Amino acid sequence: MERSDLISGINERELIGHLCSVFSTKKSPAIMEGAGSDDCAVIDISDEDCLVITTDMLHRKTDFPEVMSAWQIGWMAAAVNLSDVASMGATPVGFLSALGITADMELGFAEDIARGMDACASFCDTSVIGGDIDLHDELTITGTALGRVKKEHLLRRTGARPGDLVCVTGNVGSAGAALLALQQGLDASDELLKTLLEPVPRIKEGQMLASTGGVTSMMDTSDGLAMSLYDLADVNGVGFRILEEKLPVDDEVITLVGHEDALELGLYTGGDFELLFTVSPSMLDKVKSVCYLNVVGEVTDDTLISIMKIDGPEVSINRKGYVHMGEFDNL
User: Fold this and answer.
1) Under a CB-based contact definition with an 8 Å cutoff, are residues 173 and 55 in contact?
2) pTM value?
3) Residue 296 in contact with residue 243, Cβ under 8 Å?
4) For residue 244, what are the contacts with CB-CB under 8 A and spacing of at least 6?
5) Any long-range contacts for 103-108 (C-beta under 8 Å, 24+ apart)?
6) How far is it between the farthest Cα atoms of the chain?
7) What is the pLDDT of residues 12-68, one digit of tens each?
8) How far apart are CA 178 and CA 65, in angstroms?
9) What contacts 176, CB < 8 A, 6 or more positions away?
10) In Å, how far from its chain's centre is CA 283?
């Protein structure tokens, strides 16, 4: 990339990598993991514990569907950050928010955003502990979440090994299907729409999975299953073979759009905020005993990412999914 290149022509992950390369590699001994390498930065705070910190920015036009209430906007702003804390196996210890409000926003709307944030934080057994407010051309919310975890239980994106099993905590493609239903006027249930409008951070699941010692790597699926698999492949130097018959796609999604489109949604749309993780086969029973999960495939010793079709050959999974600098990225 050249300095004269327009940012609009650079995909999000390339830009993050480029900017991270600018930051000094010299770091405090307390920094266990710095910028760009994981869902959260990791700070050493005691002999036994570490602090995880993450931040995310959301905008009215690109991140909040028009039908979202102010309360749901607040919930979402907290959920996207607390989901990253969950992916590290950590317990949340606080949430902060910088709120860019528009001049024509009513006080009640702002109060409802705050109530939504508070509700999500409370659901995750933490609270809103600070932030900032400023005027902005568009509603913009930057959230920062902090969590605490014992070093022995800290989960990272790195650690997946060939032969490990690939698992997710819940369904894939539900939020994508809900968004499609809103865009095309399809008749979706309130339950399905809530997967998009009120995503649930898997905080308890993350902590329980970390406690087993059987999870070898983990991240959330907010950018979609396919993109998350590629992220894990990049840092671990491995591949993945996913089984179509094992993908947990909700029956309503299949009824709504048909089997093939449901598969596309399951692979390539984000917003589900489930946990994607790898498990040592010998530890699967122990991991299953603490958390509901779906085994969807295995880690391979090459760098291919593929899916075994039910009624067809093994095919490649594309590097495609939701990105914050545009609706979808297809590399």
Assistant:
1) no
2) 0.90
3) yes
4) 263, 307, 308, 309, 310
5) 103/135, 105/139, 108/70
6) 58
7) 556 655 555 566 555 678 888 775 678 899 999 999 999 999 999 999 999 999 999
8) 11
9) 224, 265, 266, 268, 269, 270, 271, 272
10) 24
